[in-house]
Design a protein that fits this description.
The structure holds two protein chains of two kinds.
Chain A (H helix, E strand, L loop, with lengths): L1 E8 L9 H15 L7 E5 L2 E5 L5 H8 L5 E10 L3 H16 L6 E8 L8 H15 L4 E2 L6 E7 L3 E4 L3 E2 L11 E5 L5 H11 L3 E8 L6 H18 L2 E7 L1 H10 L5 H20 L3 E3 L12 H8 L6 E2 L7 H10 L3 H4 L6 H4 L11 H8 L4 H10 L2 E5 L1
Parallel strand pairs in A: 5-6, 5-7, 10-11, 10-13, 11-12, 13-14
Antiparallel strand pairs in A: 1-3, 1-4, 2-3, 4-8, 4-9, 7-8, 12-15
Helix pairs in contact in A: 3-4, 5-6, 7-8, 8-9
Chain B lengths: L1 E2 L10 H13 L9 H21 L6 E4 L2 H15 L6 E5 L4 H12 L3 E5 L9 H7 L4 E7 L11 H10 L5 E5 L11 H4 L3 E5 L10 E5 L25 H39 L3 E3 L11 E6 L4 H10 L2 E2 L1 E2 L12 H5 L4 H5 L1 E5 L6 H22 L2
Parallel strand pairs in B: 1-11, 3-4, 3-5, 5-6, 6-7
Antiparallel strand pairs in B: 2-8, 7-8, 9-10, 10-13, 12-13
Helix pairs in contact in B: 1-8, 2-8, 3-4, 5-6, 8-12, 9-12
Classes of the chains: A alpha/beta, B alpha/beta.
Chain lengths: 388, 384
């Protein structure tokens, strides 16, 4: 009886022609996630990936793999030769281990026969093994609708027995969907937005805007902390840190007060686009959610959008704040996001920001500014950090 | 660099650092050990205790070493409350205290004590008539901050003690001396203070060391138990390098404290007048006579933000402090500034400048010049 970890992946299985490409990307990401942990080997077998490793390393491996996008379930398994007697023994062992977690009275056997040459058909195997379990455990009964646990039997090259399915994040392997530049503030939303696009396979780097000395150096530190948390899922992150205080001062001096936020946002988008083009990112990513603040009305987003040509992904656009917070807590960025350092948006917050800006009006206001010069001066002082 | 945040902490004197390196290198014994190395360490601790006792004009056995001001305040208040709770459960303090006092009182309230929190007037002083009225027959403790850490107001401890002496209950008087120790001249015995807390790192000593004076008339019980060090009041192996560092800092203060305070006072007046003369719409929150610490000046620059001003100055290597933490969302406003009647907008624009013996007139000139520039720039942006 050997112990291995099995990994199942969801959507990749559907990508018929590109399947091998996705699988290889996924294995690459898994290897990265497990770096520093000893394991024997990784192999593919009929739609799943298996890892051979010492059993004491299983918890650590599973913990790391949970954060790899593209994985749906991770299971510690018993691997045996596909021989009925062996399968019987392993099933009793697996059930015994499961019983130790306590308070378990019902079960169901679920067999998946990948090797169609194996003589016993799936229902037959389930029935037989079910009988074996009932004979060995007096406290257990079968419940086919809502069992306390499933005993899974996969019959392939080998037979695999398991009772635990640890949920992964799903999605697609990192790097299978190009590169995106995330506008990362210190708030709750933007790290979640980055996470969600990364889960769709987008490689993420970030641009951060601050207004020192109107914001604290601690605010930038907070963004680095957030990037570090994100990097657990997506690997090293580059942060382009840009001080836009001079742009804000110029807007403040020359443009209507109520347009402060929207004009700043347009500059942020333009700078992000320039960084993206220079560094080969194919999209911008923001944490905007429709109607959440004045600049995120449909009119505001429209005006912001018009400042750039690259596609802007807004994965949170239809999310309520509570749902965003739920994800932020789940990916452990929430605690850091709520630390009270001002980000650059709050300093120049107008008392009554425009909620229905018109593109013509905003473009008219921008005529008072030398956009190109401001951008160049601002980007000259950009700092780049790599967080990992 | 011009360091003007000396209420938060100070730069240890060179003599202090040298002394500590020496102790860490050579006298690393545990004072409780029976061998010679331990005995050496014990003697060093004794020497430091004597230096501090002499400085405060009290007896050595009345000085206890702790990890700092917060612990000293905790030991004093918790221990007094517990010990005298049979006599009464009423405690008095002010709105003007440091969190290491106020939060202990809040905790004691949950344990069934009642707490009267006295207001202060617009200069930060308590009204002695109010104190007199507040003392009931079951009052066991009055705790007062000697020098307030945000605006520098120096309380009239003598007057407070007189009120206590005239009362029937005669509660114990605890004085939080973290900002007054080594900075203002006074005599614990003459003032009739029962317990007095102080800290090492506010007087050019190291962090992690402080002390508590407990009048020998008073026997307090520990709140943390262990090996019985510090006459049983504060168990735990003595922080010998810290104690020696503090001892060295106080040894220097014994000769320098009055001249240093005089110099600081003159600079403070110079600074205040320069700000008033050169910058418009300013409010000085600290009194400029001898009723406040010579080292502390709280100033409100209307229509600015203290934190932004702080960052402007740090770019010029000048370090000051705001009285309130970041408060764009209206939380965390300084309770001290609120209690002397500052509006929320004024609290936002308030900074605290805390001098040290190292500051020169040139430093002040440069600082005011930079404040002037920064205030003008910030106002041009915020004041729209």
């Amino acid at each position: 009886m050997d112990r291995v970890i099995s990994v199942s992946f969801g959507e990749i299985a559907l990508k018929a022609g590109n399947r091998k490409y996705f699988e290889d990307k996924l294995i690459k990401q898994m290897r990265k996630a497990m770096s520093g942990i000893t394991y024997e080997k990784i192999y593919k077998e009929q739609g799943k990936i298996y890892i051979e490793a010492a059993e004491e390393n299983f918890p650590q491996i599973i913990n790391r793999l949970k954060k790899v996008f593209g994985l749906v379930y991770i299971s510690p398994c018993i691997r045996i030769e596909k021989d009925f007697e062996e399968i019987k023994k392993a099933s009793i062992e697996a059930a015994k281990e499961k019983m130790e977690s306590g308070n378990i009275t019902t079960f169901k056997v679920d067999t998946n026969r990948g090797d169609k040459n194996f003589p016993m058909k799936s229902p037959e195997m389930s029935r037989e093994i079910g009988g074996v379990i009932l004979n060995n455990f007096n406290d257990l009964t079968v419940d086919v609708h809502k069992p306390d646990f499933y005993l899974y039997i996969d019959i392939k090259q080998y037979a695999y027995i398991y009772t635990v399915k640890v949920k992964g994040y799903g999605g697609l392997p990192l790097g299978t969907n190009g590169k995106g530049l995330l506008l990362l503030s210190g708030g709750i939303d933007s790290p979640v937005a980055g996470f969600m696009m990364a889960r769709r396979g987008v490689e993420i780097n970030a641009v951060h805007y601050h207004s020192y000395p109107f914001t604290s150096e601690r605010a930038e530190e907070k963004v680095k902390d957030l990037a570090l948390i994100l990097s657990r899922y997506i690997g090293p992150i580059k942060i382009y840190s840009v001080n836009i205080i001079n742009i804000q001062k110029e807007i403040n001096k020359n443009c209507p007060a109520d347009e402060m936020t929207i004009l700043s946002r347009r500059f942020m988008m333009r700078i992000a686009e320039r960084i993206a083009v220079e560094n080969n990112y194919q999209a911008l990513i923001t944490g905007e959610s429709l109607g959440q603040v004045a600049s995120q009305t449909i009119h505001g987003l429209n005006v912001t959008n018009r400042s750039v040509n690259l596609p802007v992904f807004r994965p949170l656009i239809g999310f309520d704040k509570v749902d965003i917070i739920k994800i932020a807590k789940d990916i452990e960025t929430f605690e850091t996001s709520i630390l009270p350092y001002e980000d650059c948006c709050t300093v120049f917050l107008p008392k009554h920001p425009v909620t229905k800006p018109k593109v013509e009006d905003i473009e008219e206001s921008e005529k008072a500014l030398n956009i190109e010069e401001l951008m160049e001066d601002t980007m000259k002082n950009m700092k780049i950090y790599t967080i990992s | 660099m011009i360091y003007l945040d000396n209420c938060a902490t100070t730069k240890p004197r060179k003599e202090v650092v040298d002394k500590m390196i020496d102790v860490l290198t050579n006298d690393y014994g545990n004072p409780s050990s029976l061998h010679r190395l331990g005995f050496h360490a014990e003697k060093k601790v004794k020497e430091a205790r004597e230096i501090i006792a002499n400085f405060l004009e009290v007896e050595s056995k009345e000085i206890y070493f702790t990890s700092g001001g917060t612990e000293s305040n905790n030991i004093a208040i918790q221990s007094i409350a517990k010990k005298y709770s049979r006599k009464g459960k009423h405690l008095i303090t002010t709105v003007f205290e440091h969190p290491s006092i106020l939060n202990v009182f809040r905790h004691l309230e949950q344990d069934g004590f009642t707490v009267t929190i006295l207001d202060v007037d617009k200069n930060g002083y308590i009204d002695l008539d109010l104190l007199s009225d507040a003392i009931k027959e079951d009052t066991i403790l009055v705790s007062i901050i000697h020098v307030n850490n945000e605006i520098g107001a120096l309380q009239n401890i003598k007057g407070i003690k007189d009120v206590i002496n005239k009362s029937v209950a005669k509660p114990i008087l605890h004085v939080d001396g973290i900002q007054s120790f080594g900075k203002v001249d006074f005599s614990l015995k003459a003032l009739g203070v029962d317990t007095y807390s102080f800290s090492g790192h506010k007087v050019y000593g190291p962090k992690g060391i402080g002390g508590l004076y407990i009048s020998k008339e008073l026997k307090l019980n520990p709140i943390v138990f262990g090996g019985g060090q510090e006459s049983g009041l504060r168990s735990g192996t003595e922080n010998v390098p810290g104690i020696m560092g503090l001892g060295e800092a106080v040894r220097i203060l014994s000769t320098n404290s009055n001249s240093e305070a005089q110099k600081a006072y003159e600079l403070k007046i110079y600074l205040a007048n320069k700000i008033l003369n050169e910058i418009k719409d300013v409010k000085i929150n600290t009194s400029l006579d001898n009723t406040s610490s010579p080292y502390i000046l709280s100033v409100t620059f209307k229509n600015t933000r203290g934190e932004v001003l702080l960052h402007y100055l740090e770019e010029k290597d000048i370090f000051i402090s705001t009285s309130s933490a970041c408060s764009s969302n209206g939380t965390n406003k300084s309770h001290v500034l609120k209690s002397i009647g500052l509006s929320n907008d004024d609290i936002e624009g308030t900074i605290r400048i805390c001098l040290s013996y190292e500051i020169s007139k040139e430093d002040i000139d440069y600082t005011v010049e930079q404040i002037k520039y920064a205030v003008k720039d910030i106002r041009s942006i915020i004041g729209r």
